[in-house]
Predict the 3D structure of the following.
Amino acid sequence: MVPSYTIRLAPKGCVIIMQDAVLVATSAVLVYMLLWFIVSLVLKRNDVADIAWGGGFIVVALAVLVSRGVATDRAVLVVTLVTIWGLRLALHIGLRNRGKGEDARYRKWREEWGKSVVLRSFLQIYVLQGVLLLVISLPVVRAITAPDAPFAFMDLLGAAVWLTGFLFEAVADRQLLQFKKDPGNKGRIITIGLWRFSRHPNYFGEVTLWWGVFLIALAVPGGWMTVIGPVTITALIIGVSGIPMLEKKYEGNREFEEYKKRTSAFFPLPPKP
């Protein structure tokens, strides 16, 4: 027998609770990003924002959970998934950047912004990142604030999709890290492991896991309204700051151009002959 499910509309009370939770999350993110902005001024490097990214979602999840005062099984599940992902990502980026100078992207912006670097850094890096973080985390907020109810098929499906995405991202990051550790690979393009099937398997994993969280939110009334969360992270990675920005620096690289011809940009697919 195939499990069935329904997408339920949110009653007025749930909408009010969701609004209150978003206000809590907004306040928490504002303080969190302000603290990281201060850290960036002390260290004179804005790439700490990349480390802050994963942790920001943990802050949202915990702030909303504490403000609710009730931890349903679904809330515990979502907070756990977000915490595992956020901690791994922050640790990975922190270790990757250890002992290195500021990331080239941020260094370029620092040079371009000149005397207005402090204000523009705050607004265009930390405030903007905070806004995006809040939008993407809406399924998390809804799942945490939903009334207690038994796990449904969508919860199980969402958890499975999240796990698939998490493993893709974690394994791909690990493979890339090991590849770069080999001095013989300096300046070369990784084309092994998951990178043989996708030019950006880590990005595929991140997008996938957020769709998994959204599926969990679909199990509760009004969860469908948070679809803007996974749509936003998908659009950012595929069309804005993810793939396009990263691949731009490889323009003219012959090895990359050959790799690009035979390898899918996002979805893992068998390489072309």
Remarks:
- The radius of gyration is 20 Å.
- Residues 12-43 form the longest helix (32 residues).
